[in-house]
């Protein structure tokens, strides 16, 4: 008889050495769920980063939903189906279609990334083979955007965060400050580097046209999520005015959201994020919808991803290198030590990234992860059992 399969859930709340502020959230620690699956000696690591203001999910709600997932049926399918055939089905149908699962996007992302990683390790596959790809050749590296949040002064940002390929500015609650910031960046960088202001749903329909005009005059090319989530008609009217182009993020979590946005003519681009969009497979589908409609797309990140999600997002970016821009995150700045190794690197001399190494998504948990383990489930036992608390090394 084979050894029982198992799953361990980690809630990773790792303090950040540098905070990150934007209109929807001030963050000083990570809040990710990491799932470790083990079946017949093969291991897979998955991650999601629930954000209530984005999808309505939290780490608590995803943990509760995971308790309802029939993992024994998943384990049985992993044993009964050839890994290459199962991977092909997963890339075609996603975790929901392949395993008949239901749930929010972050739950599906947590499971899908773990299963893709496990199958990739079994097959010895590179990370690029674990996401649906386009027809564009994979480049050896990709440039990444730099994000100016509210915790950092614009002069320090310009002095320390270059070279710059694409700049995203997290909006303040004072449009005059945002206009000054855009103008300062334009004065230093010239006209060739695209500049986007991310309002994180903070403007009203009444004030947004004036804000867009002022930012356009200062040199902004894009505005991200300017209005309340799902304000399709108002977004279409705003987009129809002269000014920056509109990217949607929080409004586009599912393919149905994307189709509503396209039908309304509400945007010029999608911000695609693996966790928000329910895993790499659905994220790739959203890229296809954007591309088919003649829209641009960004491969974005959740703030403070801690491991598997970073490499899954990078695999997606290299599979679709025609993105408007790619966000690589700032894990090297946020976390002196990480719960997964090797650390997903950014070459800060050039602000570029290279493809994840593989096999799978190419990461293993470090000793720092152990104190964050919260629950374990063994095949044949339908109950998740608490993991005894251990002290945190950083405490």
TrEMBL record:
<dbReference type="InterPro" id="IPR029017">
    <property type="entry name" value="Enolase-like_N"/>
</dbReference>
<dbReference type="GO" id="GO:0046872">
    <property type="term" value="F:metal ion binding"/>
</dbReference>
<dbReference type="Pfam" id="PF13378">
    <property type="entry name" value="MR_MLE_C"/>
</dbReference>
<dbReference type="InterPro" id="IPR018110">
    <property type="entry name" value="Mandel_Rmase/mucon_lact_enz_CS"/>
</dbReference>
<dbReference type="GO" id="GO:0003824">
    <property type="term" value="F:catalytic activity"/>
</dbReference>
<protein>
    <submittedName>
        <fullName>Mandelate racemase</fullName>
    </submittedName>
</protein>
<dbReference type="InterPro" id="IPR013342">
    <property type="entry name" value="Mandelate_racemase_C"/>
</dbReference>
<dbReference type="GO" id="GO:0009063">
    <property type="term" value="P:amino acid catabolic process"/>
</dbReference>
<feature type="domain" description="Mandelate racemase/muconate lactonizing enzyme C-terminal">
    <location>
        <begin position="154"/>
        <end position="245"/>
    </location>
</feature>
<dbReference type="InterPro" id="IPR036849">
    <property type="entry name" value="Enolase-like_C_sf"/>
</dbReference>
<keyword id="KW-0479">Metal-binding</keyword>
<dbReference type="InterPro" id="IPR029065">
    <property type="entry name" value="Enolase_C-like"/>
</dbReference>
């Amino acid at each position: 008889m084979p050894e029982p399969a198992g799953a361990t859930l980690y809630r990773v709340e790792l303090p950040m050495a540098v905070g990150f502020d934007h209109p929807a959230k001030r963050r000083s620690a990570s809040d990710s769920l990491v799932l470790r699956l083990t079946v017949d000696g093969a291991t897979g690591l998955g991650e999601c980063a629930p954000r209530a203001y984005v999808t309505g999910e939290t780490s608590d709600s995803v943990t509760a939903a995971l308790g309802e997932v029939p993992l024994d049926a998943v384990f049985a399918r992993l044993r009964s189906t050839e890994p290459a055939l199962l991977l092909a089905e997963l890339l075609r149908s996603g975790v929901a279609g392949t395993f008949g699962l239901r749930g929010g996007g972050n739950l599906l992302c947590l499971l899908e990334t773990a299963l893709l990683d496990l199958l990739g390790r079994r097959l010895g596959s590179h990370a690029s083979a674990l996401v649906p790809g386009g027809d564009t050749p994979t480049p050896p590296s990709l440039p990444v955007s730099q994000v100016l949040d509210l915790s950092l002064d614009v002069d320090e940002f310009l002095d320390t965060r270059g070279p710059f390929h694409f700049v995203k500015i997290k909006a303040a609650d004072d449009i005059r400050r945002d206009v000054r910031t855009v103008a300062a960046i334009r004065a230093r960088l010239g006209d060739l580097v695209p500049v986007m202001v991310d309002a994180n749903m903070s403007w009203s329909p009444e004030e947004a046209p004036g804000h867009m005009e002022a930012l356009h005059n200062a040199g902004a090319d894009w505005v991200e999520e300017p209005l309340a989530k799902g304000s399709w008609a108002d977004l279409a009217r705003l987009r129809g005015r002269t000014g920056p182009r509109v990217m949607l993020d929080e409004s586009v979590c599912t393919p149905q959201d994307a189709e509503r946005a396209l039908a309304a003519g509400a945007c010029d681009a999608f911000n695609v994020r693996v966790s928000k969009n329910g895993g790499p497979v659905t994220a790739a589908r959203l890229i296809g919808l954007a591309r088919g409609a003649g829209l641009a797309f960004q491969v974005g990140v959740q703030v403070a991803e801690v491991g598997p999600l970073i490499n899954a997002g990078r695999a997606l970016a290299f599979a679709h290198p025609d993105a408007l821009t790619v966000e690589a995150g700032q894990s090297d700045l946020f976390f002196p030590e990480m719960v997964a190794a090797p650390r997903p690197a950014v070459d800060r001399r050039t602000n570029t990234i290279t493809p994840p190494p593989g096999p799978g998504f190419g990461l293993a948990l470090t000793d720092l992860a152990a104190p964050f383990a919260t629950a374990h489930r063994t095949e044949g036992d339908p109950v998740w059992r608490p993991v005894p608390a251990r002290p945190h090394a950083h405490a």
